[in-house]
Amino acid sequence: MPCHVLVSEVGPRDGLQSIKSVMPTDAKLRWISALAAAGLKEIEVGSFVPAKLLPQMADIREVVAHALTIAGLHVAVLAPNLRGCQAAFESGVHKVTLPVSVTNEHSMANIRKTTGEMIEEVRKIVALRDAEYPGIAIEAGVSVAFGCTIAGAVSDDQTIRMCAAMAECGVDEIGLSDTSGYANPTQVRRLFRRLQSEFGSKAGGAHFHNTRGQGLANVVAALETGVTTIDASQAGLGGCPYAPGATGNIVTEDLAFLLESMGYDTGIDIDSLVAARSILTEALPAEALYGHVQDAGLPKGFRYADGRSPGAVQPEGCLKGVAQ
Amino acid sequence: MPCHVLVSEVGPRDGLQSIKSVMPTDAKLRWISALAAAGLKEIEVGSFVPAKLLPQMADIREVVAHALTIAGLHVAVLAPNLRGCQAAFESGVHKVTLPVSVTNEHSMANIRKTTGEMIEEVRKIVALRDAEYPGIAIEAGVSVAFGCTIAGAVSDDQTIRMCAAMAECGVDEIGLSDTSGYANPTQVRRLFRRLQSEFGSKAGGAHFHNTRGQGLANVVAALETGVTTIDASQAGLGGCPYAPGATGNIVTEDLAFLLESMGYDTGIDIDSLVAARSILTEALPAEALYGHVQDAGLPKGFRYADGRSPGAVQPEGCLKGVAQ
């Protein structure tokens, strides 16, 4: 029996916020529909932040309203503070992720609050949810959990201390984020095992950036510990303006191929997912798109975890020289 | 105590044979020297094949002669038949890899021999080595071990049967090659464990192509089984003419970062390795170069497995939007 893994698509939030272009609302709605139609069951559709700071997210209410019309889709958003969460709760989303940095340096740069101030903010957010929106899930997305671009190395104890503060605040789920591609599989195994042993059912998913090409390697380690929710972004949309060529989140298409090949059922149809890239190509012509599966096609003889055959496999005639 | 992993650089062979450009001999020699100076201890410097078939390898004798002058470098080549092996042995290399396909279809397309004919050829090659060149190691590089672009799915039993034939022929080492990016980590774990349990000290290394972006994920699985030799190509040089955008072998720079981050000592200096890319940029201006670490730099606080600090870490100021 195949195990199930939830691929949580974060492209419309983490991808779109990190690029220069602003995606037209109409294209966003079509993209989200196409992603859901390809079998993605959870999509982080944007963030509730001031439009002045992030014009890419100015249409968040319209985007959420559209996403909520898609049957069966779990609609998630990011919100960095009480005000954003209030608006998110009112919009009727199913889940809100709070970006909580392990290091004070990253916390100040990212959300202009110390880690202590953010813990207090989370306490208020959970209280508001408990009082007025009991059906909405809250995830703490613990950022720079594996290392920080500003503070440098981050110890396991530092990360676990912030997770403990989040558990104590009453969030439902605690995920670990490798914000800038610092994580390695050894560390991923160690930290997720500890997260699970210390926080039980509150232990959440993995959010890896592919900055140094290590994203899927870290996924393998996370899967070993029993992680069943993994974030990814179609076409690895995002990148990093200070590191040309550095990709953003791990690529959903390549992740789906990894999981299905390993026998984890994701419910994703990779051909349909690849087809959805055309919306990005058209709406964001200036942005780099990443990934491999869209170019290489599915292997001959490929089967999904549930036994389905793909619609098409790309014939390969790659022999040149003497292959090994 | 860190474990050691041997990164076997195959760019001058597997990379150069798969691209359109022919690298000038002078640049090849400088490249190989730069790779060795960056700490790579084994380099597959080319293949002994007819220059008419592979003009990229026409200078193999000169390249081997140069590589043999580099102190401490283990010089490897590929040779597909007895005639090529005779020339390779005469050249004084330390190791010859034989490309042996699991499937008859791939064997015919790649070397114009059935698998049965190739097994007979290997027997003769080992006999020649035993009689006249006892100091030279022979590795069977078992191709399409995880799936075949022509025959499709390959069973574990098929692959192990070919490995058994190779062991019986008397090769020193049996490596498994994912020739076209068909492998997944579950399969990699299963096959390398079986290789080790059935062939003991003859069980060799892993040769992964990154066709579908799964290369480093497969490395994590191989490491778990105790594999200590992993092939890679600088800048992922190679690619596939039939799948634009599909990379060649896994990228040495990203692999070295993975291994060192996980605590495996490779002896590689990543800064020097990245610097060697400039030789490719200059000598092969038309070819795509891959990888992430060269753009992202090493993380702040990074330490090599042996405790060394890197020469430089790239400061990152990647905050844009609200990071997770």
From TrEMBL, chains A, B:
GO molecular function: lyase activity
Keywords: Lyase, Metal-binding
Domain of life of the source: Bacteria
Xref: Gene3D superfamilies: Aldolase class I
Residue intervals of the Pyruvate carboxyltransferase domain: 5-274
InterPro entries: Aldolase_TIM (IPR013785), HMGL (IPR043594), PYR_CT (IPR000891)
Family, per entry: Belongs to the HMG-CoA lyase family.
PANTHER family per UniProt: HYDROXYMETHYLGLUTARYL-COA LYASE
Protein's name according to its UniProt entry: Hydroxymethylglutaryl-CoA lyase
